[in-house]
Amino acid sequence: MKPFLSNHTDSMYNCSQVGCSHPMAHTSYPCGDPYFGSSIVAYGPQAINQQMVPQMLGLASTRIALPVDLAEDGPIYVNAKQYHGILRRRQSRAKLEAQNKLIKSRKPYLHESRHRHALNRVRGSGGRFLSAKQLPQSNAELVTDAYQKKDASEAENHPSSTGENASITFTAISALTSMSSNSVNFPNMAGSSQCSGGLTFGAGALQCTSVGR
Amino acid sequence: MMDNVGGSSSNIAENSGIIREQDRLLPIANVGKIMKQILPPNAKISKESKETMQECVSEFISFVTSEASEKCRKERRKTVNGDDICWALGSLGFDDYAEPLRRYLQRYREQELDRANNPPKRG
């Protein structure tokens, strides 16, 4: 996690700096391969001399190599202005990691109560949640849904450990998916707010399914 | 084993000062909405993209705030204000962003002044 984040952050800042600069400054910040760092350093002074114009005097165009011990694939060159900031942030992240204060893995959902509520909602074709307007149109399906909900509630009465909870979650989602498959005649929702709500919960469900696979 | 440790940490997050996901990162729905503003209406954004952008923007906020906080520490001030953030952006080489942010900060302060001079009437 940490090496990936560090590299990604460095790359992001470099790209951001290059992207938002005007063409002349773009030349001052070449994004070369790390293995050609020495070459870039060699060309640096000449490049500066070639484009030494009055409006460029204030711009800092040197690049400093970060310590190699933190980069496993050679030195990473960054904007000189950001050098100390990057080192400071690395120390902060390392300290948090040492204190084990950073959560390593993401949870599929943040709030247990909201997750349970989403599991009990009725889904239509494609897995989208049904709105209150569309529920009366399916009285026969509602009976089946109530039966499904009863099963889900019974399953949720035995959450003992994290693994067990995960199993229950997958089982419930599988049941809901089967229900969705059976309900092929439901009309698709067209309202933007409904789609937004559906997307929010649907994303969570999809993530659970992906984890299962 | 790693997952179990993570689970245990999550379970006792409130007690041992663990930095929770919702405290360390911006809300993923808000990040998705901001990303959507710049895209055509029928574009879709994967969950992985939103999570990656979540990490990037949260780290960028910490990066700029850390620079501003360092300046406040040297000047023995305790409050980081908007001017410090604008200065930090310039100090880190984000000059193209510092100037629009100064203008935004100026208009924001003007609005605050108007609000103070014309308080909403109580019914």
Please, could you describe this protein's structure?
The complex is a heterodimer of chains A (213) and B (123). Chain A is mostly helical and 213 residues long. Chain A has helices at 2-20, 23-28, 37-50, 83-98, 112-120, 139-156, 162-182, 192-212, and strands spanning 63-65, 77-79. Chain A has eight helices and two strands. In chain A, strands 1-2 form a two-stranded antiparallel sheet. The two termini of chain A are 22 Å apart. The model of chain A is unreliable at 1-60 and 139-213 (pLDDT under 50). Chain B has one domain: Orthogonal Bundle (Histone, subunit A), CATH 1.10.20.10. Helix content of chain B is 69%, strand content 0%. Chain B is built from six helices and no strands. Residues 1-15 of chain B have low confidence and may be disordered. Chain B: InterPro entries: CBFA_NFYB_domain (IPR003958), Histone-fold (IPR009072), Transc_fact_NFYB/HAP3 (IPR027113), Transcrpt_fac_NFYB/HAP3_CS (IPR003956).
Summarize the structure.
With 213 residues, chain A is mainly alpha-helical.
Topology at a glance:
The complex is a heterodimer of chains A (213) and B (123).
Chain A: H1 2-20, H2 23-28, H3 37-50, E1 63-65, E2 77-79, H4 83-98, H5 112-120, H6 139-156, H7 162-182, H8 192-212
Helix pairs in contact in A: 6-7, 7-8
Chain B: H1 2-11, H2 21-24, H3 28-37, H4 47-74, H5 82-91, H6 95-117
Helix pairs in contact in B: 3-4, 4-5, 5-6
